[in-house]
Amino acid sequence: MLNRLPPKERQIVDLLYQRGAMTAAEVVEALPEPLSGSAVRTMLRRLEDKGAVRRGESERGYLYAPAQSDQTARKSALSEVVRVFFNGSPTSAASALLGMSDRIDDQELDALERMIAEARKAKGK
User: Fold this and answer.
1) What SS3 state is found at 105?
2) Is the overall model pTM greater than 0.85, yes or no?
3) Widest Cα–Cα separation across the chain
4) I need a surface site. Which of 10, 11, 70, 82 has the fewest CB within 10 A?
5) Beta bridge partners of 55
6) Which of 56, 51, 62 has its CA nearest to residue 25?
7) pLDDT in tens, 90-112
8) What number of helices (H) and strands (E) belong to the chain?
9) DSSP label at 4?
10) Which helix or strand (DSSP H or E) is residue 9 part of?
11) Nearest in space to 58 (alpha carbons), one of 27, 16, 24
12) Which of 88, 21, 38 lies closest to 13, judged by CA?
């Protein structure tokens, strides 16, 4: 869903993932390109209607946060990348990542090996 948002709306959601819940005024201040407060509030309302952000109340006013956890959003985004760029093959995507082994340190390789072992165990193999 996030990949279908217009660029400015996506930029706001990305800010919320990076910084956590924010007021509309904080979003205005954090945006690299200036937008009016009313434009940001309108976009936040649209994002809420689309289910991309949720609104809660606080002593500072309305706080906006991503509707999905960052883990869920990452998994969804990665699934889309695998579908589009790797013809739906997680193996091809993993192979491409491992092709960047010059940037993967030994600890990360060990972690990958553990994850593969855990995935096999979970599948009963």
Assistant:
1) coil
2) no
3) 57
4) 70
5) 64
6) 62
7) 999 988 988 887 888 889 989 98
8) 6, 2
9) G
10) helix 7-19
11) 24
12) 21
- The reported pLDDT for the residue numbered 14 is 93
Q: With 0-12 CB in 10 A as exposed, 13-18 as middle and 19+ as buried, what is 12?
A: buried
Six token digits for residue 95: 């192979």
Rounded CA separation 27/19 (Å): 10
b/e string for 21-49 if b means 16 or more Cβ within 10 A?
Answer: bbbbebbbeeeeeebeeeebbebbeebee
Buried b (16+ CB within 10 A) or exposed e, 101-121: eeeeeeeeeeeeeeeeeeeee
Please give the structure tokens belonging to residue 71.
């883990």
Mind listing the pLDDT tens digit for each residue in 69-85? 888 888 888 898 999 99
